[in-house]
Amino acid sequence: MEYAKLNNGIEMPMAGFGVYQIPKEDCKQAVLDALEVGYRLIDTAQSYFNEKEVGYALAETKVPREEIFLTTKVWIDNYGQGITRQSILDSMRRLKVDYIDLVLLHQPFSDYYAAYHELEKLYKEGKIRAIGVSNFAPDRLADIAAFNSVVPQVNQVEVNPFNQQIKAQEYMLKEEIQMEAWAPFGEGRNDIFNNETLTSIGKKYGKSAAQVILRWLLQRDIVSLAKSTKKSRMEENFSIFDFELSDQDMKEIQKIDQESSLFFDHQAPETVEMFVKFIEERRK
């Protein structure tokens, strides 16, 4: 395993296992399998509704707690003074831990300033080892970094070969904010696993397109999150430390960048409206 050193000195594994959209009935075993394969970064969120199942796995695994880098994310409906703090304490209870390695604000909407202040307080109390944000574009990231006492350690954003976030990463590198990739495979969109560039590069090394993508992220110093309920696929996704892409490979992959999200634009008004509907539906 390789590690990224965050701007507060904490080390974060470069390869992580995410549990987004993993059903509750499969989540505990998936996390146990991921830890057995070698993953040490486990990423969940309040909005995934499987923190409790992750907690069951953490309680059962033989891997020491101090070796596991645990991340959760605060949902928009839990933003606000006092509310954010209680929601994180509730997450800790569900996860069966007395500290969380990284807590992120899940979306750049609603009262995220008040929510971030609550993260800062818990960070200074030692209940959270690192704090950050998710889906923050460079302008909002610059804002929250400039006008708060703790610069975010991490920004988790969509990064894949079709949305490479090159300019966004330039700012993060400048401010020493670690970029972390969600949806590195684009959830299979654009027939990514059969992409000619990725498969041809993979053939040179005896690797799959998925492994090429994760290795490409690693060489860009971007933490990646891969997800699967199949242990064999976990093993494949974790096997990215035994080969290295050439400079030419990296240039060829850069050519397929479409510079736009495969999902939705967080800076578009329509996206805000979409999340308002999400909140209303979940309240019901």
Automatic annotation (TrEMBL):
Transmembrane intervals: none
Segments forming domain NADP-dependent oxidoreductase: 21-257
Residues with site note (Lowers pKa of active site Tyr): 73
Signal peptide: none
Binding-site residues for substrate, renumbered to this chain: 106
Assigned keywords, A-Z: NADP, Oxidoreductase
MF-aspect GO terms: oxidoreductase activity, acting on the CH-OH group of donors, NAD or NADP as acceptor
One Pfam match: Aldo_ket_red
Active site feature: 48
InterPro entries: AKR, Aldo/ket_reductase_CS, NAD(P)_OxRdtase_dom_sf, NADP_OxRdtase_dom
Family in the record: Belongs to the aldo/keto reductase family.
Xref: PANTHER family: 2,5-DIKETO-D-GLUCONIC ACID REDUCTASE, NADP-DEPENDENT OXIDOREDUCTASE DOMAIN-CONTAINING PROTEIN
Protein name according to UniProt: 2,5-diketo-D-gluconic acid reductase
Annotated source species: Floricoccus tropicus
